[in-house]
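ok trying again, last paste got cut off:
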Amino acid sequence: MSTTDQFITVRETAQLLGVTERKVMDLVEEGKLQAYRIANQFIRLKKGEVESIRSGGKVVSEVTQLGYTKAERIQDFLYFNDYYIISGVFILFLLYVIFFI
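nice, full thing came through this time. structure:
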């Protein structure tokens, strides 16, 4: 199998074209890209077709950066570290009880 016949995923296609995965699915729905289903589940695209679209300049790259606010960072920190924070507070409480009561 040559490199032009290799199948790649939607995510790999999006990275290759510099667009979002949703944009790749839109291109498939519009008929600009041919998608293949493997076992009626996994969508794959031919690497050669994707590279020809990229080199032809038919797709404009998207740069999407969503703002990540300070409040969202704190919320994520607390969400992913809640066990450690609660454990640390509990240990400090036990140390206080042991040494001062």
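cool. The beta strands are 7-8, 35-38, 42-46. The first strand starts at residue 7 and ends at 8.
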